[in-house]
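User: I'm preparing a small set of examples for a lab meeting where we compare how different chains pack in three dimensions. I only have the primary sequence for this one, and I'd like the structure in token form so I can line it up with the others. Please keep the answer compact; I'll paste it straight into my notes.
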Amino acid sequence: MPVPLAPYPAPVPVPLTPSNGAQSQLVCSGCRNLLLYPLGATSVCCAVCNVVTAVPPPGTEMAQLLCGGCHTLLMYIRGATSVQCSCCHTINLALDANQVAHVNCGNCHMLLMYQYGASSVKCAVCNFVTPVGVTHATIAQKLRN
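Assistant: Understood. Below is the structure token output for the 145-residue chain.
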């Protein structure tokens, strides 16, 4: 006599994200697409190119910039001084948010912000080009205080 087979138990759905829904993101090391992954994952497989990208350790702060050569979104560990693009191999300078300076426009006195190392900054209001340097930045700092 045949033995009746019991139905398989219904599969228990495995949540893709933790119960609080926390997710993070990183850029695929293969095709450079933005990947979302649940917190706690150690690696992510890209659905587009199937490349497995390692997730940085927890607590590692990440930053983003656009490549100056090909405009690809790059992600890197915050604090790095430069980032090489894996697409066009351009080496991009990675500036922290605190690596900017302020100076007042030499014509209309609008407060301008520029990256350290710039030799001048053009005002978006009056189009005047203000030369910048240590002496100009120092003067602007004293004027603000």
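A couple of notes for your slides: The two ends are 95 Å apart (CA to CA). The first helix runs from residue 134 to 144.

User: Perfect, thanks.
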